[in-house]
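new request in #modeling-help
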Amino acid sequence: MSYIIVENLVKHFRIAKRKPGLLGAFKGVVHRKFKIIKALDEISFSIEPGELVGFIGPNGAGKSTTVKILAGILIPNSGRCVVMGRIPWKERVANVRNIGVVFGQRTQLWWDLPVIESFELLKEIYRIPNTVYKNNTEELITLLNLMEILNTPVRQLSLGQRMRCDLVASLLHSPSLLFLDEPTIGLDAVSKLAVRDFIERMNKEQGTTIILATHDMDDIETLCKRIILINHGKILHDGPLEKLRVAMSDERQLIVDMIMENYEIDDPDAKVVRRNGHRVYLRFNPNKVSTAELIKRITERHPIRDLFVENPPIEEIIAKVYLEQDKL
Amino acid sequence: MLNSIKLYFRFLEISLRGQMQYRASFIMQIIGQFFMTFIEFVAIWSLFQRFGSIKGWTLVEVAFFYGLVNVSFALSEVLSRGFDTFAGMVKSGDFDRLLLRPRSTVLQIAGKEFHMRRFGRVLQGAIILVWASIVLNINWTVDKIILVLFSILAGICIFFGLIVLQATLSFWTIESLEIMNTLTYGGAETSHYPLNIYRKWFRRFFTYIIPIAFVNYFPVLVIIGKPDPLGTPSWLGWISPIVGFVFLVVTFRIWNIGVRHYKSTGS
């Protein structure tokens, strides 16, 4: 049986409509109008043990709502949801014992306590046995290099340090399922890499099943074999990133560095999309003209210094998917 | 259970350590609370100076009611601060985090803050209670001591329960929680005086809806050895505090219904 089963999950939110102005505020007290927002509109997916799945979607798409239902914080209006054999909101306590959650925007550590004391308090809260706690802290602290900041109060940590501590905090009780909600938000490049590397290791070495909700496409590209793309409460894509790319765009991008500036390239199979000094960006369809053929033609006809082929940026593909859905 | 109590005390220790960081302000606030509530009692005292007695009750008798309810109410405030500020937790979405931990929400919220400042009021209530019992020359037998402690505990339960109810409301609305203050503060103020001085509907409200009479009026009559002017039998006072514990259990049930309605915040 799958680790996580989600079937036709629906979640509505009722939001009070407010009229502007003081009079509107008064009216709102007496007679309130509500607007129903479909945060999740019959979504279904399942996740196997050991998977690392990326959840992507714009703000308000339904990512967090899904994660919150899986964690037992929210109760759906209808549909089925089973996490490790349990219905999360019916057995909240048993369910959360096996899951770890990191919210990038919010810490789970105690603001005024030194890092190590927060860990010790979590040990009490999760009733972690001494040996497990000792092994986990030793391993995680070394892995994320937290030795020097263990006695620093959380409020004095930098964002990158805090995020590393939060990752440790969410893993102290050896959860088999980990939810990461924007774990790299606001981090500098070095911290981002450290966090990414760590996520990958936890997944590969410990076999932790990870759901990664993020806006950071680099996170997705480096970490996730499978992505679930959500918008307006519906799943638009579930599968490998590559498949999405193929499905949405058969275009490739050829970037050419010319010897001269503002040089014109003219080719029937390639279209110039952008130009930047010596650099020219061309789009072509590999089904119409093979990459080798096109490169050959262009190098023969034009004085070029360098060239390379790449897939269109993932942001663009996703933006395209969103746009198509909005049109429907 | 034992483990939960241990965790609760760990939480309290952390909260206290936080408050102790500003020791001077902390002590000043306790003293401030003490005098503030003392002025409240001076008002009652001056009332009796003017009228002598109210419906046959002397100042000292009223002081016993007053002291007892203040000890309960202030202790409940010391313990329930987390629930008192709970609306903020819903607004900020911090309640999510508590739900992600394998512990009861009640334990985690109650452990969030230990409102030490309110000890000023506890102290003031206790002093008045002791003074009244000396002047009234109460014959403190073991059963009466047990009854008074029992009533204080049950009183804490009722006020704590009212604050839990107030917190529960914030699952539905973040605004208009002020109405609950009329029940908590209003209830405490009402019980400063014996129940029989009030009108019938008012007495009924604080007996059957918010059962403060059971933890204050009825047991105090037994302790100071006065028959109820309203005619209830005296055995009622011996068992009535149990209502306080029942009330708390009911409010926790309602709390759990509220948790199921929790909507969380956007992100």
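bot summary: Residues 141 and 223 of chain B are 10 Å apart (CA to CA).
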